[in-house]
Amino acid sequence: MKIISKKQQQKNNILAKIKSNLEKKCFLCGRPANDLAHILPKSLFPEYYTNKRNLIILCRECHNQFDNNIEFRQQKIELYNIAKQINKQAAIKYFKKY
Predict the structure, then answer these.
(1) Contact 59, 53 (CB under 8 A)
(2) Among 2, 29, 31, 86, which is most exposed with the fewest C-beta within 10 angstroms?
(3) CB-hemisphere CA count at 13 Å for 41?
(4) Do the beta carbons of residue 56 and residue 64 sit within 8 Å?
(5) Which sequence spans correspond to the domains of the chain?
(6) Which of 47, 61, 57 is nearest to 79 (CA)?
(7) How far apart are CA 44 and CA 59, in angstroms?
(8) Pick from 6, 83, 3, 87: which is nearest to 39 by CA?
(9) Which among 80, 68, 62, 69 has a CA at the least distance from the CA of 25?
(10) Model pTM?
């Protein structure tokens, strides 16, 4: 059993609460989904890890494409616009928009 810190457990609880309030369909394609995804990734922007505006539900296919395919990500203007509301410079950097 993996031991996690109290701080991480608090973050996990926040994420679970946010996830429970989101519709269980992919934000991008509309299929049934359950993956909680960060628009601005936690690996690059940890300060937005539990920001509810930065969290959406994606299906596994869209989540993989969004995380790993810059062309796919750049086509998702609605996500870029949400990211800009969180942090414009971070959105430009991650979506590689100039």
Answers:
(1) no
(2) 2
(3) 11
(4) no
(5) 6-95
(6) 57
(7) 22
(8) 83
(9) 62
(10) 0.89
Task: Take residue 32 and report the two structure tokens written for it.
Answer: 């049934």
Q: H/E element holding 23? A: none
The per-residue pLDDT for 98 is 52
pLDDT tens for the chain, residues 1 to 98: 788 899 999 999 999 999 999 999 999 999 999 999 999 999 999 999 999 999 999 999 999 999 999 999 999 999 999 999 999 999 999 998 75
Sequence-separated (6 or more) residues with CB below 8 Å from residue 27: 37, 56, 57, 58, 62, 79
> Around 28, how many Cα atoms within 13 Å sit in the side-chain half-sphere?
24
Q: Residues near 45 by Cβ (< 8 Å), separated by ≥ 6?
A: 38, 54, 87, 90, 94
Q: Where are the alpha helices (DSSP H) in the chain?
A: 6-20, 60-68, 70-75, 77-86, 88-95
